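In response to reviewer comment 3 from the previous cycle, which asked for concrete evidence that the modeling workflow produces usable outputs, we include below a single protein chain processed end to end. The sequence was submitted unchanged, and the resulting structure tokens are shown without manual editing.
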Amino acid sequence: MTKEKTFSRRQFISVSKALFATQGYTGTTTREIIQQVGGAAKGLLYYYFPGGKREILGCILKQNGLEKLGHLEVDLSRVSTTAELETALMTTFKQIETIFQDQAIYQLFVIAVRERLLLTDEEASIVTQAWQQLSETLGNALSNCQVSSKLGTEACHVLGQVIVSIFQKNH
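The workflow returned the following structure tokens.
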């Protein structure tokens, strides 16, 4: 009696995510995905994903994981000096880096950046929404901070956007 291999939708997504992150969407073929999954029939990929590779990309983005950025808690209300503010912001950066140490989240981010021209508006918003939430969280925290509250709410929100932009550019 031989045991048949079973292949899941999740396997196709996992393999595709790794391939898209390393080779890019256009650099990855459906044949490679099938081989990496373990030799599933080509028809099975299209059974799970009638839209083929493009549908897999959409599923990867919808799995997200970047929402952890948007839910990051930043409390600067007890900060009273510039040095404390700098330390608190560096701690926030380390928290963001920790989120990106998760391989799945890092792969998602790489795919979203690399394939940004292929993304639908909905898919792009999945990625950008987390960064916007983080920017808003930082702006609110800076508004509640003794050191930076003197700048005013609007300036603190702009500063939050600048901090997120710097982080994105450097990482």
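The mean pLDDT is 88. We consider this sufficient to address the reviewer's concern, and the full set will be provided in the supplementary archive.
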